[in-house]
Amino acid sequence: MPANHFSWNSFFIRLGFALILVYATYNPSGYSFFHWTKEAFFGEAMEITPPLALSGVVLLIGWAIYIRATLRSLGTVGVILALAFFGILVWWMVNLGLLGVDSVSVFAYVILFILAAILATGMSWSHIRRRMSGQADVDEVDE
């Protein structure tokens, strides 16, 4: 497979990693880094362990990679447009009765999925744009 080949499979791999990153950081089930950290700081033990610290650093690295790539690919306006697009889709689903607003947990999962989808789109946008327009994005290189 060529190095510049991009397919749906490539996008779904990026989406899978974005979902892992987002849901490992926070999810309503109570099994996330947020809940683990909250228990470490405000629980009975009040103990910060090496696995907790390592997990935090790994998540920070993941967030830095995804956010930087998304902002460089989509830009601030692109991220705002993506949020507006997905926000209107959620609004439409609520309006059609496909998504209830009475369950905060379900709504949180939907919002977290949208966040992961925007991050995956940002990671993939240079490839998508090249396939649509034939134009390649080139990062600035300092000489």
Verbal overview:
This protein is mostly helical and about 140 residues long. The protein has one domain (about 10-130). Helix content is about 75%, strand content about 0%. The chain has helices spanning about 10-25, 35-40, 50-95, 105-135. The longest helix has about 45 residues, at about 50-95. It is flat. The two termini are about 30 Å apart. About 10% of the residues are buried. The model has no long low-confidence stretch (mean pLDDT about 85).
Task: Summarize the structure in short.
The chain is 73% helix and 0% strand. The protein has 4 helices and no strands.
Approximate shape: flat
Count of helical segments? 4
Run of helices and strands:
HHHH
Number of domains: 1
Secondary structure: number of strands: 0
Major sheet summary line = none
Strand content: under 5%
CA-based gyration radius? 18 Å
The helix content is over 70%
* Rounded average pLDDT: 86
Class per helix and strand makeup: mainly alpha
Tell me the span between the first and last alpha carbons: 31 Å
Uncertain ranges: none
